[in-house]
Records
---
Amino acid sequence: MFNSYIPKNEPGIVKNSGLFFYESSELAKSIYNYIYWGGQYTVTYPYCVKRDYMNSFIAFIIMEGELFFDYLGKQFSAKKGELVFLDCKEKNHYYAKDTATFQFIHFSGSSIQSYYDTLYKLHGPKHTSAIAEKIMHTLYSLIQYQEKDQDFSISMEIHRLFGELIEQAKDKQSFRYSPTARIPTEIQQAIEYIHHSYSQTIVVNDLAKLANLSTYHFSRQFKKFTGKSPYNYLQTYRLIQAKNLLVSTNLSVEAISEQCGFNNSSHFIKFFSKSTDGITPKKFRALKL
C-alpha cells in the first residue's frame, strides 16, 4: 500500500539498521492505533525526504546529531533526545546537513487525528520527554521482533506516548501563562526559583519574600497566573522530575525522593501513588514505558 511512498534510492543513508513493516489485523485497523512501518537510519547530507501527501502520521526520536524539518510553514531542527510528530497529510520535508541517527514510525488509528491535533495545539511538533523516548524505543522493538498477537500492545504504547506528551504539554503551558495575561515578573521569579531549587526545602513564605509580596497576596497572584497554588505547583514539578528520573536512571526510589525534594521516601511514595491512580514508583519504573 505504501511502497510508492518509499524512495527506491535514498542518497545520504550511511547505515540502515532496519526497516520493518508491520501487518496489523483488520480488527486493529478498525478500532486500535497501529503501525505501518518503522526503521532506524544513520544519515548525512544529501539525505532528504519530501512528501506532498500520505495518509499517515510519522514520529521521530533523534538518537544522535541533528535533523532538519520544514513543516506547516515553519523551519526547525531536532537534536538528540528530541521527538518530532508530523501529520503526513500535510506537506513535509526533512533532511540532514551532517550525520544524524534516528528511529521513526509511520502509524495511524481512529483516534490519532484527535491526539495529534491536541498535542500540536498545546506544544507544536517537537517535544522532549525521557518517558516518551523510551516508549518510542519500545514501539520500534515491537515491530522489529514481531511477536504474535501484539496489536493491542502496540495500540496501548501509542496511546501512552500521546498521553504522556499531552499531559506534559498541559503542565508546561500552565507553568508559563495565564489565560488572560503574561505572568508578572515577581511571579515568574518565583517560578524560576522553584525550577532551579525544587530539590531543596521551599516554603510559601520564602517565595512571597522573593516576590516582595505578602504571603496572602502572593498565593492569590500565583494561582491566578499558573492555575495552581504555590504548593501544588511545586509538588507537580517535583513529580515530573521524579518520573523522568525513574525511567532514565537506575537511581533508587529513596535517592530520587531526596533529589526531587520530598521530605522522605514514604511521603514520596504516598504522593506518587495518589497522583498516578495507585501506581507506586517501583511499579511505574517496571511498566513497559
---
Amino acid sequence: MTVSVTRLVLLLAFVGCLIAAARVEVPAQRAVALAAAVVLLATLYLYQPKPPPLPSQRLPVEDFTVWVETGGALSRLVGLDPQELRQAAQLAREDFRDLSANLELLASRLGILAERGHGEVSGLRELSLEVMRRVEVLSREFPEFPGRALEKKDFLLSTLEHSSTDMGYLSERLSELCRVKPPDVSTLLAQLQRQAEKMKESFRVAKSNLASLLERVKPPAPQPVLLVPLPEVPKPAPPPEEKPEEKPSQVVGQPPEAPPEAAKAGEQKPETPSEEAKPTSGAKPEEKESQQAPAEVALGG
C-alpha cells in the first residue's frame, strides 16, 4: 500500500470516528470514538510528506571536496525578456539558494578547523556567514516589477560587488594560511580557498548578468491621472446696495427747508406765562377799586 493510499484510509477513518462521536448518545461510547479519532490523527501526522533537505544538508560537511554545483550564476537571465521579471525572480532565487548553500558549507568547514585549534579562521567563518545573509536578502528582495527593479538596481548590483570583494579577500587569507600551516591542514585550506575563488567569480558573473537584464528594463508608462471635477460651491449673494437718499430740489429764492426735527420744534406752541404774571381775571370789582383808591388819594394831596 502506497503512502498516499494509507493517508486516505486514515483520513476516512478519522472522519468516521468524528461522525460516530457526534451521533452516539452514550458517554462511554462517545469517549471511545474521540480517543480513536485522536490516535488516527496522530498517525496521519506521521505520514505527512516532509520537505526535501537543503543541498547543504544532503552533503557531508566533513568532506571538503564536495560542493553544490552552481553553474553560471544568473546566466539564465541573459536571454529573458525584460518584462518577464517574475520568471527572472524565480530563476534568481534558485541560483541564490545554491550560492547560499555553498556559503553555509564553507562556514561549517571553517568552524570545524576552528574547533581543531586553528583559531585564525574564526574571522573568515564570520565573514562567510555575513555574505550568506547578504545573499538571502538578495533572494527575498529580488524585484518582480519593472518599477521596483529600477528602484532596487543600485542595491542589487552593489551587494553582488561587495560579496565578490569579500570572497576575494577570504580567498587571499586562506591562500596565506596554506603556506604556514601543516600539510594536512594546508590540504583542507586549499580546498576551501579554491571554492572561495569560485564563489568570487560567481558573484562577479552574477552582477554582470543581472546588470545586462536591468539595463533592458524600461520604466513603466505613467498612468493617466483622472481629474475628478469638484462640486461647484455656490457663491454668496452680494449685499444689497444702499441707495443714497434723494434730496428734493431747492427752488431758487426760497429758504432751505428745515430738518424734520426743527420743523417739529417749530410746530410746538409757546409756553404760556406763569400765573403770577397774568392778571387774575376772576378778581372782584371792589377789590380793584380798593387797589386804585390809594393812588387817587396820593394824587389829590
---
Amino acid sequence: MDIAKLKMLCDIAETGNFTMTANRMGYTQSAVSHSVNKIEAELGFSLMNRTSTGIDLNSSGKTLMPYIRMVVAHYDRMRDVADSIVDLQHGTLSIGTYCSIAAQWLPSILKKYHEAFPNIEIKLYEGGIKEIESRLEDGSIDFAFISWQKNRNYQFITLVRDPLYAVFSKDFNIPEEYKKDFPVDAFKEYPFIALDPTVDNDTFSVLESAGVKPLVCFTCRDDHTIISMVKKNVGISLLPGLFIKGEEKELQTIEVKPCAIRTLGIAFLSEKNLPPAAKSFIDLASKMIKGNEI
C-alpha cells in the first residue's frame, strides 16, 4: 500500500466522487476504482459505499480515515524535512542589508552560520532602503536587514530599537542647555550634514515629523563620510546608534528631544516562500541579535 494510494483515499473521502478525484490527481476514473478495490482487498474489508449519487465512507472507512490522514501528514512532513536537508547542504542565499548592519551585526552571524552550513554560498547586497526594497520586490534577494517602513507589502520581523543621536565633533561647543538632550528644532541653527533619504530615510522622517528643516550644507550617501566630516567639524548630523557604534571616543553624541528611534529587523515577501537556508539564517540571526551575541 503506497502513499499515493493513501492520498487518493483521502481525496475520495473529500470529493465523494471517483471521477472528480481522478481529474484532480491526474488519473483515469478506472485507475482510481481499481486502486480502491486493491486497497480494500489488501485490508480485507470495504471502505466505501458505492451509490448512484456518489461515494460515501462506510463505518470501517470512517474509523480508518483519521489514521490514513495521519500517515499522509507525517509522510508529507518527512518529505519537507528531507528536502530541507538537501537544500541546506548546497545552495545560494542572497541577503540585502544596510552597510551599518553588514559591518556591526553580520560578521558574527555569518561566521556561525557558515560553521553550521559550510556549503551554502551567501551573497550580500549592501545599499540604501530604496535599492534594497527594489531587490526584495523583484526577488533578487531572499530577505533583507532594514528598518521598519510604513505601508509596505512585505513581512517584517522586529529585532531591536535603534535610537537616533545628535552627533558632533569632540571640540564642538555645545550650548549648556543642549547637553542633556538636543532639541530636534536646534538642527536649524547649525550646518547640517544629511544622509541621502534614498539610502536611509529614518533621519529624514524624524525631522519631517517634527516639522524641522535643518540647515543642510552637505548631503552624502555614505554614513562613514558623514562621520568623517563631523569629526573634522564640518557640521553636525543626526545618526542612528548603529552608525556611530565604535566611534564614541571621537565624537560627542546626545539623545534628541523628542526621543527618536528606528526599528531594525528582517523583511521578506512571504514566509511560505522562503527557502530552508533563508529560514535557518533568519532563525539564527534573530536568536543572536536578541540575545546580544553579536
